[in-house]
Amino acid sequence: MSRARVVVVGAGPAGMMAAAQAARLGCEVVLVDEALRPGGQIHRQPPPSLAGGAVSAAARPEAERKRRLFDRFARYSGSIDHRPGTSVTAVYGLDRILIADETSSQLIRADALVVATGLHERVVPVPGWTLPGVVTAGALQALLKGGRVRAGDRIAFAGAGPLPLVAAAQMVEAGATVPVVALLRPPWSPLWPGLLRDPAALWAGRGVLSEGWRWLSVLRRAGVPVLTRHVALSVSGDGAAERLVIARHDGHGRPVPGTEQRFAADTVAFNHGFTANSDLARMAGAETRFDPRRGGWLPVRDSDGATSVPGLFVAGDAGGLAGGLAAACDGAVVGAAAAGWALHRDAGRFAAQAATDRAERARHWTFQAALAPSWELPPDIHALVTPATVVCRCEGVTRARIDRAIADGHDGLNGLKRNTRAGMGSCGGRSCLRTLAALAGPRGEGEAVNARPGIRPVALAALANRVSDESVGS
Ligand SMILES: Cc1cc2nc3c(=O)[nH]c(=O)nc-3n(C[C@H](O)[C@H](O)[C@H](O)COP(=O)(O)OP(=O)(O)OC[C@H]3O[C@@H](n4cnc5c(N)ncnc54)[C@H](O)[C@@H]3O)c2cc1C
After folding, report:
1. What atom of ligand 1 comes closest to residue 89's alpha carbon?
2. For a pocket test of ligand 1, which of 17, 34, 42 has the largest count of ligand atoms closer than 8 A to its C-beta?
3. Which of 9, 13, 128, 219 is deepest in the core (most CB within 10 A)?
4. How far apart are CA 398 and CA 395, in angstroms?
5. How far is ligand 1, taken at its centre, from the CA of residue 4, in Å?
6. Residue 474 has pLDDT above 60, yes or no
7. Could you check whether 5-121+275-372 and 385-446 share the same CATH topology?
8. What is the Cα–Cα distance from 331 to 314, expressed in whole angstroms?
9. 331 Cα nearest atom in ligand 1
10. How far apart are CA 111 and CA 250, in angstroms?
11. Which residues have C-beta within 8 Å of that of residue 235, sequence separation ≥ 6?
């Protein structure tokens, strides 16, 4: 008879800890990740040939967290069936999970499925955002961490929350010139009221705060102007990004006339927060709720990570932005619950095994709750999306086209998608669905978009080359 099996999707901090915990508790564990090495977004690893190199003072706390995470994972990694370079592209049920690598595909089964797929970046589109040389702040980090590549010499940043600051400081340390970091509001200003009300949150977040301070010091030493209460108006250039135009905003996101400033740059990096990768959980039938600060459409889950679908669990940032430290603790908690379900149909069976992680997670969650308002966008920010601006870059759909569809009564997100094709391209709506929802108003954000099989691009050859399926059913 086969052992009780836990399948974990995503080998970031949450997935690594969920897999290690389930293996420790006696389950057969399959850990699937499209990346070639574990670590997820925050601890993305380069290929071994590029590993090593000096770690700066500002980067040391992250390196230390990474070391602790990998040490803990290493204790159980020998008994985990890790499948790198492999995507989960559809979940038809726990007995029919479609995975694919470059050359083959397979249906596998799970007694418990943990979705630990993290999140992706959100960008508010402005004229010129599709020019070559415009990227997301996290993409710059990914190239630097995963390939030791600095994608740009003169890089201007704009957006919301702390990521543009951190990424800008990392690019400075990598040798780039940063002419400006333009933020919608100071990420620290919404933080203080929450932290002063709740000293426990302040204490829990002291490490993250001091790390943020170190990155800010890097920017200050390099003389980088950090302009808060500013919006990006446009990117322009002759066939590629050459300058970023910003202006002060009125507190609601509307530019104040006469305050425009231009910054020459060969690369412009945006980040306006994050969207949870909840599509696999939604495809499996999990209920969702909308939370604009913590990642949009989030699977409804209990404190064990259990969703409305029996046996389906969500761990880490896929359940809402809470940072890498919380994600690792959450993974350990959810891994124990998934093991309890897989072995005994009782998610609470091993709760005591994860008590320390549960307590630590609570501390990180308290701090992150205080930080969450820094990702709230001003209410009129989408007024910057001009009629000619492309909103869905995969299908080339402009704001004017979307406005026409809304005027024709297609104000629900799925109706807008069907009517305009926005969100139906190869990125699966990753870059446009939040904008589409915001333009559509309350109905847009209230309605979770349907998640269709093929959420990650798969080669036809891989689909045709099906390795012996483990599934039951048709
Ligand atoms: C672009 C970006 C930049 C960030 N930068 C910082 C930073 O500088 N500092 C900081 O403190 N925090 C940063 N964060 C937040 C931090 O990365 C997260 O809080 C943390 O990594 C969450 O861990 P996780 O395990 O939940 O998800 P992740 O670390 O995101 O891991 C998710 C994993 O799931 C995999 N995956 C997703 N979908 C599939 C699929 N369908 N099939 C197979 N595998 C899949 C991905 O390859 C990834 O490895 C960043 C987040 C993002 C998205």
Report:
1. 41
2. 42
3. 13
4. 9
5. 27
6. no
7. no
8. 9
9. 25
10. 53
11. 126, 127, 128, 129, 131, 133, 134, 241, 243, 244, 245, 268
Would you state the pLDDT for residue 230?
97
- With tokens 């919301």, the residue in question is 160
CA 389/CA 401 separation, integer angstroms: 10
How far, rounded to the nearest angstrom, does the alpha carbon of residue 286 sit from its chain's CA centroid? 19
The answer to whether residue 470 scores a pLDDT higher than 80 is no
Whether ligand 1 lies within 6 angstroms of the CB of 212 is answered as no
Tell me how far the alpha carbon of residue 118 lies from the centroid of ligand 1, in angstroms.
Answer: 4
CATH topology of domain 134-272: FAD/NAD(P)-binding domain (3.50.50)
Tell me the CA–centroid distance for residue 261 and ligand 1, in Å.
33
Report whether residue 232 contacts ligand 1, using a CB cutoff of 6 Å.
Answer: no
DSSP 154: B
- What pLDDT, on a 0 to 100 scale, did the predictor assign at position 325? 94
d(CA 264, CA 14): 39
Ligand 1 atom nearest the C-alpha of 316 is 26
**Cα(418) to centroid(ligand 1), Å:** 30
pLDDT at position 471, please?
A: 55
Contact 73, 435 (CB under 8 A): no
User: Which two tokens mark 44?
Assistant: 């993305």
Dihedral angle sign, alpha carbons of residues 12, 18, 21, 26: negative
Tokens representing residue 338 in the block: 């998934």
Q: Where would I find the beta strands (DSSP E) of 317-409? A: 390-392, 397-398
CATH code: domain 5-121+275-372 is 3.50.50.60
Q: For the segment 319-361, what is each residue's pLDDT rounded down to a tens digit?
A: 999 999 999 999 999 999 999 999 999 999 999 999 999 999 9
Please work out whether the CB of residue 41 comes within 6 Å of at least one atom of ligand 1. yes
Is residue 97 helix, strand or coil?
strand
What is the arithmetic mean of pLDDT over 435-444?
86
Q: How far is the CA of 293 from the centre of ligand 1 (A)?
A: 17
State the distance from the centre of ligand 1 to the C-alpha of 276, rounded, in angstroms: 10
User: Which atom belonging to ligand 1 lies closest to the Cα atom of 35?
Assistant: 47
How do the domains of the chain map onto residue ranges? 5-121+275-372, 134-272, 385-446
Task: Give residue 3 CA to ligand 1 midpoint distance, Å.
Answer: 29
- CB of 351 closer than 8 Å to CB of 37: no
Q: d(Cα 87, Cα 90) in Å, to the nearest integer? A: 9
Fold of 385-446: Arc Repressor Mutant, subunit A (1.10.10)
* Beta strand extents in 208-273 (DSSP E only): 226-227, 230-236, 243-248, 261-264, 267-271
322 residue type, one letter: A
E strand or H helix at 217, and its extent? Answer: helix 206-221
pLDDT of 195 over the 80 cut: no
Ligand 1 pocket residue status of 42, Cβ below 6 Å: yes
Burial of 239 (0-12, 13-18, 19+ CB in 10 A): exposed
